[in-house]
Amino acid sequence: MQFIDLSREIHHRAPAPFGHPPISMGVWNDHSEVKQAGATRFTSKSYFLSMSDHSATHVDAPCHFNPDPNAPSIDAVPLENFYTEAICLDLSHVPLKHEITVPEMEEALARSGQEIKPRDTVLIEMGVIKRLWGTPGYLQDFPGLHVDSVHWLADRGILMFGVEAISPAPLMEPNYKAHLACAERGITHMESMWNLDKLVGKGRFRFIGFPLKIRGGTGSPIRAVAVLDD
Ligand SMILES: [Zn+2]
Fold this sequence. Notes:
The protein is α/β, with parallel strands linked by helices. It has a single domain, classed as 3-Layer(bba) Sandwich (Glucose Oxidase, domain 1), CATH 3.50.30. It is built from four helices and 15 strands. Helix 3 (about 145-155) runs parallel beside helix 4.
């Protein structure tokens, strides 16, 4: 069994998407301060964290873009939705800022030799980390899904899809259309993932990515992991 880490690091001032506060992280106490309890002397270290519920690798809750008061927050989404079977589609060849079309999704699926089953998680490798990590383009030049491709995934009964970019579709209108389509179709997605290139050609695998139990959360950071059989 092999575990592939699909999450980005959480750290002070990590790249944050437009419209969300950045991660602020600092020392709360450290080993320079000697404490005492009774006769026991010790030191300890801990940090404080302040961040958006859409920080780093995260999943969006249905209530993020669905104004219906009954749309679930992240703490109300069944845990089963985050422990699924999964496949990864290779769309790493598409140009930056491109909106991936349905024929391109169909071609990538055929090339993978896999099928999409109901309740699957579908990860989509677009070469974002390879091409853009560490550059200003990471926050603005990424490709993503055309809204029709979001509907195409929903038509196949998936639970969620995931991308390395900070958004499921290119910035501004395509991004909001993709989010609204997810809300309308009752599916969701993960953003700011990592290592998706390592899943290309690996067939069907186990996906695990549990959210934190944030009361009323509109999303949550996740430790996303692919588990491959030997
Ligand atoms: Zn989102």
